[in-house]
Design goal:
By secondary structure, this protein is α/β, with parallel strands linked by helices. It is built from seven helices and nine strands. It has helices at about 15-30, 40-50, 65-75, 100-130, 150-170, 195-205, 215-225, and strands spanning about 10, 30-35, 55-60, 85, 130-135, 175-180, 185, 210-215, 235-240. It starts with 7 loop residues before the first strand and ends in an 8-residue tail after the last strand. Keywords: Oxidoreductase.
Length: about 250
């Protein structure tokens, strides 16, 4: 028996990286999953791999009308939504004097506005379901800033704040809302050409002396999606190998 048997989940940014790991874990644990992304080929391949309990939808998370379509189609295919994982995100690393208005706004739209739209749009569906769990993927950069990360940091701080506001508003409907704050996780985002040396340097700053794995994040998100975390809402869950322990 899976921890998510009978549950319907929506996961954004699900075609690769941490998102695809979450999709696999949820299906493994018995959920019916609609996952979305702009990476169509990878999304369709994952859908084919996982079978009838996983459906891919192309989805620009910054568009309100596309959110409405995703939720409506999820209900039509599987039923009302029990779980939302706001996982889609990007990073632009530039100093203030190099960061353009357009780049800043793009990061905020994808990382921050999408979370607002997702929570707002899914609310009615979760009311139909009689409750639910929303997991918003922030970052340890939503707990403390870093030079060269103004756009990313501000968006992730905002996700942390929105999570708390939504948790207070949604509690009366039996809907829990929590944020997850990963540290350095081994994904395609940090595996680009020329990044190995930088990643090796970063490992030396991590008390556990290693990067995290997507599977480890998926297990944490599974905990928050399941009834195992039934008394947790409005909280921050950190998985960073100890980076923030001294803060």
């Amino acid at each position: 028996m899976g921890k998510l048997d009978g549950k319907v989940a929506v996961i954004t940014g699900g075609s690769r990286g941490q998102g695809s790991s979450h999709v696999r874990k949820f299906v493994e644990e018995g959920a019916k999953v609609v996952f979305s992304d702009i990476l169509v080929d990878e999304g369709k391949a994952l859908e084919k791999e996982l079978g009838d309990n996983a459906k891919f939808m192309k989805h620009d998370v910054t568009k309100a009308d596309e959110w409405e379509q995703v939720i409506a189609e999820t209900e039509a295919i599987f039923g009302p939504v029990d779980i939302l994982v706001n996982n889609a995100g990007i990073v632009v690393t530039k100093n203030f004097d190099e960061l353009s208005d357009e780049e800043y706004r793009k990061v905020v739209e994808i990382n921050q506005v999408s979370v607002f739209l997702g929570m707002k749009t899914v609310l009615a569906s979760m009311k139909k379901a009689g409750g639910g769990s929303i997991i918003n993927v922030s970052s340890i950069n939503g707990l403390g800033g870093a030079a060269g990360n103004a756009a990313y940091d501000s968006s992730k701080f905002a996700v942390r704040g929105m999570t708390k506001s939504a948790a207070l508003e949604f509690a009366e409907y039996g809907i829990r809302v929590n944020s997850v704050h990963p540290g350095v996780i081994q994904t395609p985002m940090i595996e680009g050409e020329g990044s190995k040396e930088l990643v090796d340097q970063m490992k030396e700053t991590i008390p556990m002396k290693r990067t995290g794995q997507s599977e480890e994040m998926s297990k944490l998100i599974l905990f928050l999606a399941s009834d195992d975390s039934s008394y947790s809402t409005g909280s921050e869950f950190i998985a960073d190998g100890g980076i923030t322990a001294s803060n």
